Amino acid sequence: MPLDLVREAQEKLTVDHVDRAVQCQLSTHDGDHFGLLGDDGMCGTALWLRWYGMSEAELVVLPDCPATGGEGCCLFADHAERHTWEDTPEEAPCIS
Ligand SMILES: [Zn+2]
Ligand SMILES: [Zn+2]
Q: What is the C-alpha separation between 11 and 59, in angstroms, rounded?
């Protein structure tokens, strides 16, 4: 995660530590990767880092996924792939 984005994220977040080794939260998938950075202090949204391959990353504020499967989903609205509560242990997580 680029340093300037770390600084930008820290300004937006209610925490003073941003993990530079943010990892994609989705199951194995194609397309953009999304790593959760934290709560931006607003209700129902969170700050995410979006990137694709080795290209530029950007900060995006996304609404929480409204789906509930008993546990609730930890991802954002309209995300690709499965909700977090649909993941099975045999499913390989995205390693980006
Ligand atoms: Zn990914
Ligand atoms: Zn979901």
A: 12
Q: Which pLDDT does position 58 carry in this prediction?
A: 92
Tokens representing residue 24 in the block: 């994609």
Q: Which one of the ligands is nearest to 23 CA?
A: 1
Q: What spacing in Å lies between the alpha carbon of 93 and ligand 1's midpoint?
A: 8
Q: For the segment 30-63, what is each residue's pLDDT rounded down to a tens digit? A: 899 999 988 777 778 999 999 987 778 899 999 9
Q: For residue 10, how far is its CA from the centre of ligand 2 (angstroms)?
A: 25
- Phi, psi (degrees; rounded to nearest 5) at 7: -65, -45
Q: Are residues 94 and 30 in contact, defined by beta-carbon separation less than 8 angstroms?
A: no
Q: Where are the domains of the chain?
A: 3-86
